[in-house]
Write a structure and sequence with these properties.
Number of domains of chain A: 1
Strand content of chain A: under 5%
Largest interface: A-B, 51 and 61 residues
Radius of gyration of chain B: 30 Å
CATH superfamily of chain A: LemA-like domain
Helix content of chain B: 55-70%
Structural class of chain B: mainly alpha
Largest sheet of chain B: 4 strands, mixed
Strand order of the largest sheet of chain B: 1-2-4-3
Strand content of chain B: under 5%
Number of strands of chain B: 4
Oligomer: heterodimer
Number of strands of chain A: 0
């Protein structure tokens, strides 16, 4: 190049550099946003699996109560406790499904489900004292479905919590954390439910 | 199925055309921007020199030396800047979509349907997708629901293992079961034909150009706003004004260049996809044997006001992947789909041109399984077609035969894949097993129980391994399905795995890693790997790795099959030995396979049985899967020739060919009845 940079050349370089940096910065912002959005979608989709199984459980419980009522009408308190816990959990799930990962809905659902779990446990413990009921085919089938559904809920909950943890980890990294607030990505809350220690039947594969 | 490679060939030509057009466009865009820069520079430099001359001589004349148009440094600079912007935009979009089909679905704000859903319209949709999966041999994709009132659908992903299908809500509202089936069949044929990888690349590259126009637009805005009314003559202000003017011009230039570029991008989309849409329609009819299905859906699109037009602004980017045109257009030239009328006429030549009124359908009642006798094995075979002992359906054979050019004439019209047949197969599964395959928790235990050996001692060892590696809840669930799985005919086991894939994709990465580890322990429990164990592990691993470990996806680079002849030898040797115990027979089958690859007549003999191990098979197959399209086509044809030479397909051969086709991403459909 001839003696020194001419003014237009400097201007040209400056503009090009500016354009370049602007582009890179904008891309960076978009990349961060999309990484967080993908993570959030992941845990929202994971919640859908919990939702399906919870709804199944809420459908089964009234059937259980109907069946049991015939045998133990005097245990009204226990039965009512189960029904009201079920209704509370049903409502909590509806709120949670529209806003998974939100701290309030997750805590409410967790507490409602824990309560439902414990009242169900109590009910099933009582049925142990009624051999006729225990031997009833429909009852056994229903119990099995219930157990299976609870297992599915547990597994789906684990996947959901994994996704939430992954999102929170992505979010808490610098510099993402600085932008996350600006973009409106709040930390997600795990779903914690107290598990009821039910006796897992002894498995024998004797064949 | 014969069309599969034809379609892939077209897709490859499409890619070449795409690359060519795109390169031309890039050159045009860079030239435009450079010319603009050169013009600006030229003006400024001329003014500069005039000023200098005036300062020196006091005379206001034009400079003696005109500014040349050719400024190499400026060219390099402007090319680099433009390239950075376009390349950055493209790379960004491509990496965003690299996750797989689910990224596209999320871009369109789709809602993932849980595979265990009980909502009747959703359940019906998933049942249809399940049946299509069996019919086509493609592992069942995840299904997303789009919040759109129009009638439209798309398929996206890099490989069948991470494929997703998106369906608009309007489809569920307006289409009958048969019409839905037609639409799904159309989308499955896109997955089958391997259009998906090309589609995603297309989105990425065009996005780079759009990004350029966006950047230009913002530059223009900023410059226009900061243009103060300053017209003083002081030097710094003058430079400031110059800067603003430059920014203004460059912004406008970039904006326009980007716009033109993205227009060209849409033309490219159109050029590639219009042809494919006719083919996909034809494939769908072939799948379902019911032209009224897809024809009905097209007519409803024509009859509906909103048609197939989506509200989501991103619909433009995925237009070429959709069932119908997703963006309202004035000009048919840019359309990536043929006109609806033409599509209908190709299917129904006698159509009278009227669109029946489109009304929302009432509540959905789920149909019971179509087979009257669940659990019964398949009816008689097609005459002249190889069969398994016991008359069990042969998922692999007919698809293979259709692919092998030698035998395609023999099979002829009898090999129509029927969705009805797939529904029959689906009806043969005990309903409890299907339900178990539809959520991640029980689908896992289903896979575990499929691996349990019938031999008592091995089974005990495996169960002990399970009890150590899993939870009591897992064992509980396993026990529920143990008997049904044990009673399942062997020919239905791998299809059951295919149906379980979307449920298995619902696991978290940690759960997936645990799952694979347990599978391995089950297989290792007896110290040897049976063909079925290998097939199951390979299928599950390949399809799910595509979704969970996208970094393991391979690129098709190898082109010369003759260079990989030792791998082909291993592959064909194992297959030949899987079909017979007689060394002479095995050698003949092997030779038949080798003969399909030109230039191997004087080649290697079959491996001795001791060397024809599954490990060798697996290693060879993985290496061969890194071939490009033509390469893989030759491999599959050689495999088909080897298996079909002796006209009887054993269970092991069937399982191995499923493995080969899955790993080479060439799906295999089941055998239809006579």
């Amino acid at each position: 190049m001839p003696e020194g940079l001419s003014t237009p050349m400097i201007i040209g370089i400056a503009v090009a550099a500016l354009l370049g940096m602007l582009a890179v910065f904008v891309l960076f912002l978009i990349a961060v946003y999309n990484k967080l959005a993908t993570g959030r979608n992941q845990y929202k989709n994971s919640y859908a699996q919990i939702d399906v199984q919870l709804k199944r459980r809420y459908d089964l419980i009234p059937n259980l109560v109907e069946m049991v009522k015939g045998y133990m009408a005097h245990e009204k308190d226990t039965l009512e406790a189960v029904i009201s816990a079920r209704n509370r959990a049903f409502g909590a799930n509806q709120k949670a499904a529209s806003n998974p990962g939100d701290p309030d809905t997750m805590k409410e659902l967790g507490s409602a489900e824990s309560q439902l779990g414990s009242s169900l446990s109590r009910l099933l413990a009582i049925t142990e004292a009624y051999p006729d009921l225990k031997a009833n085919q429909n009852m056994m089938q229903l119990q099995e479905e219930l157990t299976s559904t609870e297992n599915k809920i547990g597994f789906a909950r684990q996947a959901f919590n994994d996704a939430v943890t992954e999102f929170n980890n992505k979010r808490d990294v610098f510099p993402t954390v600085a932008l996350a607030g600006m973009f409106g990505f709040t930390p997600a809350q795990l779903l914690e439910i107290e598990s009821q220690q039910r006796e897992a039947p002894k498995v024998s594969f004797g064949k | 199925m014969r069309n599969f490679f034809v379609h892939q060939e077209r897709a490859r030509q499409g890619t070449r055309r795409l690359v060519l057009l795109f390169s031309i466009m890039m050159i045009l865009v860079v030239t435009t921007i450079y010319s603009l820069c050169a013009a600006i520079y030229g003006n400024l430099e001329t003014a500069n020199r005039t000023d200098k001359q005036r300062a020196r001589t006091g005379v206001n004349v034009a400079p003696a030396k005109p500014v040349s148009y050719w400024q190499p440094e400026l060219l390099a600079l402007s090319a680099a800047a433009t390239g950075l912007v376009i390349g950055g935009g493209s790379a960004y979009r491509i990496s965003q979509l690299a996750v797989g089909g689910s990224a596209v679905a999320q871009m369109m704000q789709g809602r993932l349907l849980s595979s265990a859903t009980r909502e009747p319209p959703e359940r019906r949709l998933l049942n249809i997708v399940e049946e299509m999966s069996i019919a086509s041999g493609v592992p069942m994709p995840q299904v997303y629901l789009l919040d759109e009132d129009c009638i439209n659908a798309f398929a996206a992903g890099y490989a069948p293992g991470d494929a997703v299908i998106g369906i608009s809500r309007g489809c569920l509202t307006y289409l009958t079961r048969d019409e839905l089936q037609g639409v799904i069949a159309h989308e499955f044929s896109h997955i089958l034909n391997g259009d998906m990888k090309l589609n995603i690349r297309l989105i990425g590259w065009v996005h780079g150009l759009v990004f350029l126009s966006v950047v230009g637009y913002y530059l223009l805005n900023i410059a226009a706003r900061s243009r103060s009314g300053n017209s003083s003559n002081s030097n710094s202000d003058k430079n400031g004004n110059q800067l603003v003017v430059i920014a203004l011009l460059l912004g406008a230039g970039a904006w326009l260049a980007g716009l033109i570029g993205s227009l060209m991008g849409q033309i490219i989309q159109a050029a590639i996809s219009r042809q494919r849409e006719f083919l996909a329609d034809a494939s769908a009819v072939q799948f379902t044997r019911y032209p009224d299905g897809i024809g009905g859906a097209l007519k409803k699109i024509g009859g509906l006001d909103v048609g197939s037009t989506m509200k989501n602004p991103q619909a433009r980017e995925i237009n070429h992947m959709c069932f119908g045109e997703s963006v309202a257009r004035f000009s048919g030239w840019l359309a990536s789909h043929p006109p609806t009328e033409e599509r209908i006429r190709r299917i129904e030549p006698n159509w009278d041109g009227t669109y029946p009124p489109v009304r929302p359908l009432g509540p959905v009642a789920l149909e019971p399984p179509t087979s009257a006798n669940p659990g019964k094995t398949a009816p008689s075979m097609i005459p002249g077609v190889p069969s398994l002992p016991g008359g069990i359906p042969l998922p692999a054979a007919v698809g293979v035969m259709a692919m092998s050019e030698r035998t395609v004439e023999r099979v002829g019209n009898a090999t129509d894949r029927t969705a009805k047949r797939a529904a029959e197969i689906a009806g043969q599964f005990p309903p409890g097993l299907l339900e178990a395959a539809r959520n991640s928790f029980s689908a896992r235990t289903l896979i575990y129980s499929l691996l349990l050996d019938s031999d008592g001692a091995i089974r005990t060892a495996q169960l002990a391994a399970l009890e150590a590696a899993t939870t009591p809840q897992d064992i509980e669930e396993l026990r529920r399905h143990l008997d049904a799985v044990a009673a399942l005919p062997r020919g239905l086991r791998l299809p059951l795995v295919d149906i379980s894939i979307p449920a298995l994709r619902e696991m978290s990465k940690g759960q997936y890693d645990t799952f694979r580890a347990v599978l391995q322990r089950l297989i290792d429990a007896d110290g040897r790997m049976s063909t079925f164990e290998y097939a199951l592990s390979s299928l599950v691993g390949h399809h799910l790795d595509s979704a969970y470990r996208p970094e393991t996806r391979s690129n098709g680079n190898l082109t010369n099959l003759r260079a990989s002849i030792t791998d082909l030898r291993r592959l064909l040797s194992v297959l030949a030995w899987a079909g017979t115990d007689s060394p002479a027979e095995a050698a003949r089958s092997f030779e038949a396979g080798m003969a399909t690859v030109r230039g191997t007549e004087s080649g290697l003999p079959i491996l001795v049985r001791a060397d024809a191990t599954l490990e060798a098979f697996d290693a060879a197959m993985i290496r061969l899967s890194r071939g490009n399209l033509a390469f893989r086509k030759q491999v599959v044809q050689a495999v088909a020739a080897t298996i079909l030479f002796d006209e009887a397909v054993t269970v092991e051969e069937d399982e191995l060919i499923r493995v080969v086709c899955a790993n080479l991403d060439c799906p295999v459909p089941p055998l239809p009845s006579a």
